[in-house]
Structure prediction request, 445 residues.
Amino acid sequence: MGERSWGVLRSPESKPLNGGANGGFYDPAFRDNKSQPIHRWVPWIAGYSYRFVDDVLNTYGSEKRTRVLDPFAGVGTTLIQARLRGHDVVGFELSPYAGLVCKVKLDAWTTDLKLFEESISDYREFLRTTKTAKRRPPSRFHTRIPFFSKPVERKVLLTLDFIDNLGDKEVRDAFRAALGAVMVSFSNYSYEPSLSSRPGADKPLIENADVVRLVSTKLFQMKDDIEWLHKWGPTQTTADFYIDDFMNFAKHESAKAHLAITSPPYLNNYHYVRNTRPQVWWLGLVEAAEDLQELEERNVGKFWQTVRGGEQIDLAFEHKELRQVLEHIRETRKLKKVYGGPGWSNYVASYFNDCYRFMKVLKAALSHRAIAVIVVGNSIIQGVEVRTDKFLADIGAHSGFEKVRIDRLRDKRVGASIVNSSVRRGTKAKATVSLYESAVVLQRT
Prediction:
């Protein structure tokens, strides 16, 4: 690959990028990752940029090798960037699909490059010469219209047949991650940003697609990046990664971290479990519908659909201002019951109760005087603004942290109609409240 430089490895001595809206951290938007090795393998709507992680490392990280934690690792931006910068990392991710991708990225340091490249050639030959698949579609994965057309489905099943027969686990998992990264692109569904049918988004059905070419293109991209990593990446770092709920931190033998960089689920009801259903079913990451239900129940920030219909949920801790916000939401459109204020107040209360639990566990996972940088966005629930960043900082103060600062990173122009926001897809109506993202910086006492 010659002397290619991707600009991922930045000197620990370099100054913060100061790219935030108010002169703070760099814009966290994931789009910067799309051109960066390792980071670019899988798009992730909930992710932030490697540049943002760099900024945090430059501002609060040590010049020496240290331990960086991400309790909500997603597809691994924090862990990969920190490891590229020469730090040890520890991460947790509940989603089986995101966890698979993150593990594959972390395994790239040791992936057998020659075997990986040979496997790509073998895959292309296997799909060229094999006509009948042994695999069958996942019987418990149901969609309103066929997820794949029949010609596409046959190629996907053949791809899975080939993956099943790969002997090396790291290579096998890398192939699964590659298929998961591109499968929606040749399905009859798309992300808008939530998973929906192509006809529902005014897009035509996909009758056929060159699955081999699309999967192979992703695999060759991964091969190039692994080659780059083996040539340029630090090799002495360690990575502890758990596909598990961070609330189970105490069950794992993991040393305390010196810096946490993370972004928990937002208070926007984005359904991570449902939006990765194609990947988890087709890649064999779940076996039963009960597995998905368990993931929903364990998710930090319960989904509105799972808590709206129960008894009234109250805060598990004292916070006068947040209680007033909950009461305001609860009284809004009260006659709609679970679809109005009562249901949505349950959702908000559950979210902040989970944040309270998270902060307690985070304190236990960090060393004395460690810094935590937490990216969150505000929300508009039933027309009521919920300043999640402020409330999260307050919860931190109740849980053994000192508030260092809150940096407003960027304003957003996309709202969700389900929460009765006056901000709509890319356009602003007469919005009195804007949506934004902030970095909440806390220090463990």
